[in-house]
Specification:
The complex is a heterodimer of chains A (344) and B (521). Chain A has helices spanning 3-17, 24-31, 57-70, 86-91, 106-110, 153-164, 177-185, 196-204, 233-252, 259-268, 274-280, 297-305, 308-315; strands spanning 34-39, 47-48, 54-55, 76-81, 97-103, 114-116, 121-123, 125-130, 144-149, 169-174, 191-195, 212-214, 222-229. Chain A has 344 residues and is of the alpha/beta class. Chain B has a domain at 308-480 and 487-521: MetI-like (MetI-like fold, Orthogonal Bundle). Helix content of chain B is 73%, strand content 1%. Chain B has helices spanning 23-31, 36-61, 70-81, 91-102, 111-128, 133-153, 158-177, 183-198, 203-226, 228-243, 246-270, 281-284, 286-298, 313-339, 344-359, 362-376, 385-411, 414-422, 427-457, 469-479, 488-515; strands at residues 200-201, 302-303. Chain B has a two-stranded antiparallel ribbon with strand order 1-2. In chain B, helix 4 (91-102) packs across helix 14 (313-339), helix 5 runs parallel beside helix 7 and helix 18 packs antiparallel against helix 19. The radius of gyration of chain B is 30 Å and the shape is globular. The termini of chain B are far apart. Residues 266-280 of chain B have low confidence and may be disordered. Classes of the chains: A alpha/beta (344), B mainly alpha (521). Chains A and B meet through helix 1, strand 2, strand 4, helix 4 and helix 7 of A and helix 4, helix 11, helix 16 and helix 20 of B.
Chain lengths: 344, 521
């Protein structure tokens, strides 16, 4: 051990020991506001509308956390972060929670010292081509020009995929989504690749969506989820279980609309589903206290924007312009991957 | 035979030159078709212009202003101009206009930045037109009229709109009666704008103003009694004693340094939770925060506090641009003088500063503002991103301005310096009365050109996550599924506004050059 490091650690520990080190939960409660790192504009996932009100799939998760922690879904401040600034903003304490379609990877988890607490959307990289190109599989794209955003994991996935299938391509690098769509529509590239959710929303915005098809191959795993700082396990648990409460609510059929009815029914009926009772803190169940919240935390998180399914349908589901099917993001009971551990 | 001599009794009236030597034909012949290569070039240029216009004009003419989504735009264009016609969808600008101007600033508070913007014209009028009555009154009057229109357009509530317009009307009267007095508006404008834009308690800016008032007064009294040097030192000491907590400052700086030296930057940021936390700026300025806290408790007056993250669009560009422009000029002058100084320390510091910041790209400096500065400041410091960005932009711009002014200084003949010495003026008197007025006059085009570049560079702040109009706002507006698929319209709109601002600056600099012209050639 280097001497200077030893002295430094000594100084640090002495000083730290003399202070009450406040966790993120205490910081948020003292501030009375949750700082949520959000996307700087991604359709369906997080963007401000014409009145400056943030909406989206990730945004609603932040609202649920704010509701569970502070008792008010509006007490959340969204801070736009870019692909470059997002992890620094989290590490330096500018935001308490990053809910910004960030892919959970090994190096981000270990090297950047972040904690991905859950996967709220299972995405994967796909391709979109014009129908008249006559291509039905990504493996037929030999020699194609492909529009691709620079500096993303998608760029690396693309190289891997073409290499693995021993076919060639010419990349057309673009800076952002709107430019990619512009180039693709102008015919500068044969195929456009990004996350399948992004392809779906781009396709729906085209002048003639039916002239374009999304190829069946998904060439990468992109598990997107909320991120917190490494080391504050209590705060990580709160975000994780807030998310799980939304999943369990969908599993149990608890919606924003019937929440109060379910509570009333469970209170009246001693034979009602015991896990629902534990989740909603009915009777002498006070599971929320174990993680530093109160027993009503899940009532508030579900009441903020509804259960997982409702949030999905309202922001990116098939009724919205984004028009995504549940697919991998269906509950495990319906053949998807969304699975919450039991509340016990 | 008699010879009759023919003599005209009157002059012939001059006849018009032949058609090929006058009017449009002459101009065309001389300028466009004077030789074969010119004819070819003219025809090629005409063709290029025709080609560009024929491609873009229908797009502009088919533009749609009233629609709620891009799909509606396309539908309207298809109905009015045929199914294959292309057209601009300006509706996105109309619907999201407020966000291009203000970013995510709270809607009901729009009157605050608008008023601050109008007051900015009042503040710069006496500076731009050296307190001349007519131009000052015209500028302030126009600002007042535009403010009332803007506030009406933004749907400001009656009370705030009334106060704001009344304020501007009163200032117009002041501009007419005593234009020189407007300088006071210029002096308080930085604090006033800060209060209007960020809000919070009124006592914060007020106590800063009181502090500066006391320090300024002390400086003037001491300077006349004891001389400039003593006064500067004494006031600096007074400032440190009263307003900065030196123990805290030293302690937090040292502890950071120790930590940084022992663990290195990498661990330092990762183990943010181990850093010696809990300092913030209020502890470094105890008297100021105590004073404003006390006043706020007694008499809570203030506006809704707006976080910097909500600043965006042209509001952000103007806040950064104007602050940087006003701060970089004096710093640039000092650096230019420092570079010419005979004192080795001052000279080398100035040269090092200028060369370093001219040698690195602005983007590098912006990234360091975002990431690096946080590591060197007391942990958990509530040190705003916009303030950090403004500081680095000022530093960056000062280095450029310094070199432009050095050009002006170099252009002055040596005789001017010698003449100042011969008159017995000391260094600062010579600079103020003889050197700077001439050097600055020579440097006007360069200075204004730097300012224009600086203003346009404010769009680079998008890289550190701020919502500038060109990238930040455009990105989230176009991410909306109602407008996804639009591309050129926001660029054209934002470009047009930047052009208007930069062109005005350029025109003003030409006016100033004309006004200050002393060589009667």
């Amino acid at each position: 051990m280097k001497k200077s490091a030893f002295y430094g650690a000594l100084v640090a520990t002495t000083l730290v020991a003399g202070m009450a080190s406040a966790g993120t939960l205490d910081d948020v409660k003292a501030r009375g506001e949750l700082l949520c790192g959000s996307s700087s504009g991604l359709a369906g996932f997080g963007l401000p509308d014409a009145n400056g009100v943030w909406t989206g799939f990730d945004v609603d998760l932040c609202r649920a956390v704010a509701a569970a922690v502070l008792g008010d879904a509006t007490k959340v401040k969204f801070i736009a972060t870019t692909g470059e600034t997002r992890f620094t903003a989290l590490a330096s304490g500018e935001v308490d929670l990053l809910a910004r379609n960030s892919t959970w990877t090994f190096s981000r988890d270990n090297d950047l010292k972040l904690d991905f607490v859950a996967v709220n959307y299972y995405d994967g990289q796909g391709f979109m081509v014009r129908k008249d190109l006559g291509v039905s599989s990504a493996k037929e794209l030999d020699g194609a020009t492909v529009c691709i955003q620079t500096g993303t994991t998608t760029e690396l996935n693309l190289a891997d995929f073409f290499k693995a299938n021993s076919i060639s391509y010419t990349p057309v690098t673009v800076a952002d989504d709107s430019e990619a769509q512009r180039q693709y529509e102008a015919g500068a590239c044969d195929a456009f690749t990004t996350d399948a959710s992004g392809l779906a929303s781009s396709r729906s915005a085209m002048a003639d969506p039916s002239a374009h098809i999304i190829l069946p191959e998904i060439i990468s795993k992109e598990p997107l989820g909320p991120v917190v700082r490494h080391g504050d396990n209590n705060w990580g648990d709160i975000v994780r279980w807030t998310y799980f409460s939304l999943l369990i609510a969908e599993e149990k059929g608890i919606t924003k609309a019937n929440l109060n009815d379910v509570i009333a029914a469970s209170e009246a009926d001693p034979a009602a589903d015991p896990e629902t009772k534990r989740l909603l803190g009915i009777g002498d169940n006070d599971m929320g206290v174990m993680m530093g919240l109160d027993k009503d935390w899940a009532r508030r998180s579900i009441g903020a924007a509804g259960n997982y399914g409702e949030i999905f349908e309202a922001n990116i589901g098939e009724a919205t312009p984004i028009g995504l099917a549940r697919g991998l993001n269906a509950l495990w009971t319906q053949g998807g991957l969304q699975y919450a551990p039991p509340v016990r | 035979m008699t010879q009759t001599a023919f003599t005209r009794t009157e002059m012939l009236p001059p006849i018009a030159p032949p058609i090929s030597e006058r009017g449009v034909v002459k101009w065309l012949r001389e300028n466009l078709f004077s030789s074969i290569p010119n004819i070819i070039l003219t025809l090629a240029a005409l063709f290029a212009v025709y080609w560009l216009v024929s491609l873009s004009l229908p797009w502009f003419l088919n533009g749609v202003w009233h629609a709620e989504t891009v799909q509606q735009c396309r539908q309207i264009i298809a109905e009015t101009a045929g199914p294959d016609a292309s057209g601009a969808c300006w509706a996105v600008i109309r619907v999201r206009w407020n966000q291009f101007l203000f970013g995510l600033y709270p809607v009901e508070e729009y009157w605050r930045p608008t008023l601050a913007f109008a007051l900015m014209f009042v503040a710069i009028a006496p500076v731009l037109y050296s307190g001349l009555r007519k131009p000052c009154t015209i500028i302030v009057g126009i600002a007042a009229v535009l403010l009332s229109l803007a506030l009406y357009g933004l749907g400001t509530d009656g009370w705030h709109g009334f106060v704001a317009v009344l304020c501007l009307a009163a200032l117009t009267a002041v501009a007419w009666i005593a234009p020189k007095k407007l300088v006071w508006v210029t002096l308080v404008f930085p604090l006033l704008a800060f209060f209007l834009l960020w809000g919070g308690s009124v006592w914060g800016p007020v106590s800063v103003a009181i502090a500066f008032g006391i320090l300024g007064l002390a400086f003037v009294k001491l300077a006349s009694a004891r001389g400039l040097l003593v006064a500067s030192l004494a006031v600096a000491l007074l400032f440190l004693c009263c307003f900065v907590n030196p123990i805290r400052l030293g302690e937090s700086f040292l502890s950071n340094l120790v930590y940084l030296a022992s663990f290195g930057t990498y661990d330092y940021v990762l183990h943010f939770d181990l850093r010696i936390g809990g300092y913030d700026l209020t502890e470094l300025f105890p008297l100021h925060s105590a004073l404003s806290g006390y006043l706020d408790a007694k008499l809570p007056i203030g506006l809704l506090y707006v976080r910097s993250d909500d600043f965006g669009g042209f509001l952000l560009a103007f806040v950064i641009g104007i602050t940087a422009i006003t701060a970089s000029l004096p710093i640039g002058i000092l650096l230019a003088l420092g570079r010419q100084s005979d004192m080795p320390l001052v000279k080398s510091i100035s040269v090092g500063f200028i060369e370093f910041f001219r040698g690195v790209p602005l983007i590098t400096v912006l990234f360091s503002a975002n990431f690096m500065l946080l590591y060197f400041l007391p942990p958990q410091t509530n040190f705003d991103l916009i303030v950090r960005v403004i500081i680095v932009v000022v530093i960056f711009a000062s280095a450029y301005i310094a070199e432009v002014i050095r050009g002006g200084l170099a252009a002055l003949p040596r005789g001017q310096y010698e003449a100042a010495d011969a008159l017995g003026l000391d260094y600062w008197q010579a600079q103020r009365l003889i050197i700077m007025p001439q050097a600055l006059k020579i440097s006007i085009p360069g200075i204004v050109s730097s300012f224009i570049g600086l203003f346009k560079d404010t769009t680079l702040v998008a890289l550190v996550g701020l919502a500038d109009p060109l990238t930040g706002v455009r990105k989230f507006v176009l991410a909306d599924s109602a407008w996804k698929g639009i591309y050129w319209e926001p660029f054209i709109f934002v470009g047009a506004i930047f052009f208007v601002v930069c062109f005005s600056m350029s025109r003003y600099s030409m006016y100033l050059e004309q006004k200050l012209k002393t060589d009667h050639v």
